[in-house]
Amino acid sequence: MKDGRHLVWILDDEWNSHELEKSMYNQHGFEVKVTRSDKLEDDMPLYAPCADGVVAQVGFQCRADVIDKLQSCKVISVSGAGYNHVDIEAATQKGIMVSNVPDYCAEEVSNHTLALILTVTRRLASYNRKVREGKWDPLDTMPIHRLSENTVGLLGFGRIARMVAAKLKPFGVRILVHDDFVTEETFNVHGVEPVSLNDLLQQSNILSLHVPLTTETNNLINYERLKMMPRGAFVINTCRGGVINEADLETAIKEGHISGAGLDVLEIEPPSPDHPLLKMDEVFITPHSSYLSEESIDELRTRTTQAVIDGVHGKHLPYALNQVKTETKI
């Protein structure tokens, strides 16, 4: 609390305007301060000790050194679905709730996943480039296979993957799924085939990734696992870049075992201009934009803000990522 008002500290390198958030906070008597990463050291002693709530924009590192300085904070609201940039263990030890917004962009990401599948399997980027170069030859990008003849493997079967499965069904593809945390009943309801990870890799012509980045999933898709896939397979990633070992993906494509990849995420974003995958015609990359629409952004900002207001007032957070002992902070 600062000057008798609850203080919200927004850590954000992405958005330049926070008028929507400020309007909501002002209605509840909250003061708002925004910090960019290049000003963090200067702002930390000013706002960290008295912040009642913190907004952690995806990509802004909210690590233990920051959390340790939070003396009055009740809630950290992650502005997005991914939360690997927040040290949840450190927050839990400080008695701070952490909440995210996991489903605000499920429609957008599932649509983007399908767009990437169609773009790389139909080789649209190559066609477009060659037409621009004055080449009009539909046969110079073969092989292209009928989509319905493919098996699509979904690694992870949360909200987004379930929407991807529903949208793939009209194409007539076979859909395999691997997710150890989903019940048999859920697989049956969605009409997909649950298989082991090895079976998923060995049978999928198109592998689409839908898992969080954890110690278990970091570099999960490495050279060994890429080589398990059928020759000519494609890899689609709209979850987190670190799930794929990018050097191994480059090697597998150069060897001709993997035909191509559609990536919305990379391990380091933005990538360096000399990143090898940027120079490969077989790889189609978008700038971590699968979440984006006017509607999804408004929903994200509104729900992120509401989570801070509710958390500061001690209300239930439906998407809490941790459990803490309830105690009054002065």
Question: Could you walk me through the main structural features you see in this protein, from its secondary elements to its overall organization?
Answer:
The protein has 330 residues and is an alpha/beta fold. Helix content is 33%, strand content 16%. The chain contains twelve helices and twelve strands. Helix 1 (19-27) links the parallel strand 1 and strand 2. Helix 1 packs parallel to helix 12 (294-312) and helix 5 packs across helix 7.
Instruction: Output the helix-strand order.
Output: EHEHEHEHEHHEHEHEHEHEHEEH
> What's the helix count?
12
User: Which regions have little confidence, pLDDT < 50, spanning 5+ residues?
Assistant: none
Give the strand tally. Answer: 12
Q: Order of strands in the sheet with the most strands?
A: 8-7-6-9-10-11-12
Number of domains: 2
The gross shape turns out to be elongated
The third-level CATH topology of the largest domain is Rossmann fold
Residue-averaged pLDDT, rounded?
A: 95
Protein name: C-terminal binding protein
Domain D-isomer specific 2-hydroxyacid dehydrogenase NAD-binding: 114-289
GO molecular function, one term: transcription corepressor activity
Domain D-isomer specific 2-hydroxyacid dehydrogenase catalytic: 21-322
